[in-house]
Amino acid sequence: MRFSMGSRAGRCAAILVVAVLTGGMDEPGSGIQLELKPRVCTLAANERQCSTTVHANWHSPREESLCLIILGRSDVKRCWEHYSQGTYSVELVFSDDLLFELKDSRLETVLASEALRIIREAIRYRHRRRDPWNIFQ
Amino acid sequence: MVCDYPDRMWKLLIAFVLTAAATAGAARASPVRDCDADSPDCVAVGKWNVSLALGAGVRSNPLVHGQDLPLVVVPRISYYGKRFYIDDLDVGFTVFDGAKSTLSLIASPGYDRIFFYRSDLQNIFVQLAGAAGTNPPPVRIPLRPRAITYLAGPEWTFNYHDIIGQFDVLREVTGHNHGEEVRAAIQLPVTRSTGALSATLGLTWQSAAIVNYYYGAPRIYESGSALRPFLKLAYTRPLGRGWRLEGIAQYEHLADAIADSPIVAHDYVVTCFFGFVHAF
Question: Based on the number of CB atoms within 10 Å of its own CB, is B67 exposed (0-12), middle (13-18) or buried (19 or more)?
């Protein structure tokens, strides 16, 4: 397509091209994908904690140096140097949502994050049998 | 006097069902109080409830040579589904569950067997009636077994302020005596501070078929229906951490139809228990 650089349409097209080219340039930390399995833990009515093995998997279009942490759980930390992907499995016992974060190696910038959520089955209640005829009621 | 009241029984049943249905309808139309964990009248659906009473108590046995039963350890188990429930040896299906009124269909064991068999399960999961006799009845009455029986029918329970009522119309369904039984009770609060004292007035009406199944002897003693009123005082005080203190005293008067039987020595059953209950 030919267009005049002086025209309004031409300026718009140029801005669009610059934007696409700029956006396509990879910056460190961009394009990192983090996946968790499972993503949800369901508690039955009589359970208080989730106990499960969590598999975290990340991949990036380029090599990265980064660390996987869980917010509020300093005991869990796994780092990689110059890798484009990584997996980490950990057994966890928890009673609240967990936030997994991939951070740069200095632990300053969050590159990606995913939450492992707890869903509690709603406890339903009904009326207890009223049984005054029974001696222990 | 030998008599039975099948017509009266069924009229009573019809009146009961109509009354219960009307009450249920009225309750459905009114706002239903939310049921939650903080309400002592409510229980979690889908969860087993187990408690154990530990203490000292006794139930008298009205049978000739019947030995009183000591009450030391009394387990209680219940489970409530959305509609189905198990309450010790009773099972039920709730047709309507309202804040003030509940209508269920229940099946409940015939209690009088416990007078004759110490091993009856009802002597473990203690219910209303008296204790088991380890000795046989007098020899002039031919020995015969009393099978485990179950009665089934509608149960209507209600509460009005702190007053709790119960009304059951039951029929024996296990084919051993085909009798009918009506159970009714009203529980009234007496005092309530840190502990709660309540009084319960109740009665059991048993048709001649049931009375004769347990206390009769062909050509020797045949009776009519029997009315068994009782009065119970119960005190309970929460102690925390699932424990509570409990004291119970109950006097049940046996009608002449039962007391006049040659195998019966007393016209009453007394039950008392004092101890601690722990809910697990």
Answer: middle
pLDDT in tens, B230-264: 999 999 999 988 899 999 999 999 999 999 998 89
DSSP B111: G
Chain A CB within 8 Å of residue B232 CB: yes
For position A136, what pLDDT does the model report? 72
Question: What pLDDT sits at residue B129?
Answer: 39
- Which tokens belong to A100? 């997994």
Delimit the CATH 2.60.40 region(s) of chain A. 31-120
Residue B40 lies in a domain: no
Question: Which two three-digit tokens encode residue A37?
Answer: 């399995």
Chain A residue closest to B203 (CA)?
Answer: A133
Q: With respect to CATH, is domain A31-120 assigned 2.60.40?
A: yes
Confidence class of residue B4 from pLDDT cuts 50, 70 and 90? very low
Q: What is the ipTM of this complex?
A: 0.76
Measured torsion, CA atoms of residues B36, B40, B88, B65, in degrees rounded to the nearest 10: -170
- Which CATH number characterizes residue B197's domain? 2.40.160.40
Q: How many domains is chain B partitioned into structurally? A: 1
Question: Which residues in chain A touch residue B186, judged by CB atoms under 8 angstroms apart?
Answer: 132
